[in-house]
Amino acid sequence: MPKVLSDAEVARYRRDGFHFPVRVLPAAEARAYRDRLEAQERALGGPLQGNMRHKVHLLFTWANELARHPAILDAVEDIIGPDILCWSTTFFTKEARSPSFVSWHQDATYWGLSTDEVVTAWVAFADAPVESGAMRFWPGSHLRSQIEHRDTFDSDNLLSRGQEIAVDVPAGEGVDVPLKAGEMSLHHVLLVHGSGPNTTDDRRIGYAIRYIPPHVRQLKVRDSAMLVRGRDTFGNFDHEPDPRRDLDEAALAAHRDAVERSAKALYAGTDRTAFRA
Ligand code: NI
Fold first, then answer.
1. Which residues of 36-56 are buried (b: 16+ CB within 10 A; e: fewer)?
2. From the CA of 122, how far away is ligand 1's center (Å)?
3. What is the per-residue pLDDT across 122-149, written as a single tens digit (0 to 9) for each?
4. Residue 112 neighbours by CB distance under 10 Å
5. How far is the CA of 193 from the centre of ligand 1 (A)?
6. How far is the CA of 160 from the centre of ligand 1 (A)?
7. What is the C-alpha to C-alpha distance for residues 71 and 231, in angstroms, rounded to an integer?
8. For residue 8, how far is its CA from the centre of ligand 1 (angstroms)?
9. How far is the CA of 194 from the centre of ligand 1 (A)?
10. Please, which residues have CB within 8 angstroms of residue 10's CB and are 6 or more apart in sequence?
């Protein structure tokens, strides 16, 4: 039985490859999460960079809390079922008036996962109007299976390899995905999506949380993930621990271990071993 999405909305997700908006947090609570992120950024001397942008739920209690948030998991359960692993979390931040962009791509390209039952919850920490470089989705493109990508390593591109699809998205086919702070979108791992630069005076901050059912396997490395709902009777992933305090020693060690495994999978075939700034 769906908990948040109606049967029609689940059917549309299967057809189009996405669903939005879903209200996760009231605006004031979203603001509180943003404040915690920004306090952390001030303490660290700048935006989260490199490895710290990834698997953030292992470093900070608030990021972990969000990856386990019932309002997110209820919607995710409607798509992938009641047993849920959080496989990764990543911040996609575009500073005010910045050229950062994300080329058209499919998330699945370098992830090494055995099936396409992977859903991304993209949670807006700040309002993300179209002009801020909101995501754009190509409806139905998840049904085309894996499309060939080329790596660009463009420094303004927020993706790990600057990868982009080797075909053009037909003009007029993209759907804008504006979100208010505290709302999320859900998208399928094979959905072609991208986003433009931020031309507004505020930051665009997205927290992308990737969820999988535990029968999914990682084909490239022995990988880790965090059980956030239900049971894992498969053992395909080593289970990651919750951080007890922000950036404490145990959290840093768990994060280092997990990120090393991800980097190994994502950068296989290149000479890179860590995430780019
Ligand atoms: Ni993506």
1. bbeebeeeeeebbeebbbbbb
2. 10
3. 999 999 999 999 999 999 999 988 889 9
4. 17
5. 6
6. 10
7. 19
8. 25
9. 7
10. 2, 78, 79
